[in-house]
Amino acid sequence: MNKNEKIIPIFFAIDDGYTPFLAVALQSLIDNANKEYKYLIKVLHTNVQKEHMEQIKKFESENVNIEFVDLSYYIEKVKDKLYTRDYYTNTTYFRLFLPELYPQYDKVLYLDSDIIVVGDISELYNTDMGTNLVAAAPDDIIQYNKVFQDYAELVVGVASYKNYFNAGVLLMNLDELRKFNFQEKFLYLLGTVKFSVAQDQDYLNRLCKGRVTLVDHAWDVMPYVNNETKPEEIKLIHYNFAYKPWHFEDVTYNEYFWEYAKKTEFYEKIVKIKDSYTEEQKFQDREAEKGLAELATKENSCVGDDRENRRG
């Protein structure tokens, strides 16, 4: 590899069922990426079929390299400590192990697979982080909901809910995270505190607080809240939580997803997934959303609130 090449390492984490949506995310990312960079894409997984790997590898080109990395052996060591609920799987925790797994990189991007990238991803990668541990956008579900605002401040412990970031679009300063002994601290916290609302995202916010660079909201636009981002300003759409265009008809910004889905060989499969998604499954998704708020309310009630005193 030429040392003068401008390289951007990008990580995804999936299980086999998410392969079609990874394909759509990659299609959008590559279509809009600055061709002056070389993109090293690592797909962390535990069970992706060989056929699906071969389909994803077709996205490779002169400036795009894709590698599948099986982390079964690694996750086996801590799986008993990893709490998951609803549609989450252990793959959601993979990003927390990147500093130690990839000592050759000082900075990487981690991206969830339920995204569409309509901006140039190199702009996000080139964000000036200084010595901060991560860079990310504020989480919409926190910013627009009082229950979750309280949860971020009382339970997770951030100084202000406005600083609570979404970890699905994450620029990670691996060099500083290693100096911070992030993985050691994460595993310690994992054994002493159970965050049950946003799980790995809560741990990241707890550990990184005070050392976060907040990026523009346009890099993590979510479809289920009213926001002030103009369509022409959107850089990345994140179909977070249960609001998936491959499950529901009326998801905001769904047209972006289908535009890129049609360009992939997974398109017909995605349409079948949508058509076969039952009313019962949709109902369960809505109930999960209500349950999340109830869970946060319960967590909040277990913590004393001295914020007014502290402000004084």
Please give a structural write-up.
- By secondary structure, this protein is α/β, with parallel strands linked by helices.
- It has a single domain, classed as Spore Coat Polysaccharide Biosynthesis Protein SpsA, Chain A, CATH 3.90.550.
- It contains 14 helices and 9 strands.
- A 7-stranded mixed beta sheet has the order 3-2-1-4-7-6-8. Strands 5-9 form a two-stranded antiparallel sheet.
- Helix 1 runs parallel beside helix 2 and helix 7 packs across helix 13.
- The termini are far apart.
- About 2% of the residues have low confidence.
Q: What labels would you give this structure?
A:
single chain, about 300 residues, alpha/beta, Spore Coat Polysaccharide Biosynthesis Protein SpsA, Chain A, seven-stranded mixed beta sheet, two-stranded antiparallel ribbon, 14 helices, 9 strands, about 40% helix, globular
What is the molecular shape? globular
* Rg measurement, Å: 19 Å
Strand elements, count: 9
Q: What structural class do you assign from the helix and strand content?
A: alpha/beta
Average residue pLDDT: 89
Helix content: 25-40%
The main β sheet shows up as: 7 strands, mixed
Distance between the termini: 57 Å
CATH architecture, by name, is Alpha-Beta Complex
Q: What is the CATH class designation?
A: Alpha Beta
Give the domain tally. Answer: 1
Q: In sequence order, what are the helices and strands, one letter per element?
A: EHEHEHHEEHEHHEHHHEEHHHH
Strand order of the largest sheet: 3-2-1-4-7-6-8
Name of the CATH homologous superfamily:
Spore Coat Polysaccharide Biosynthesis Protein SpsA, Chain A
CATH topology-level name: Spore Coat Polysaccharide Biosynthesis Protein SpsA, Chain A
Number of contiguous helices: 14
Binned strand content: 5-15%
Low-confidence runs: 83-88
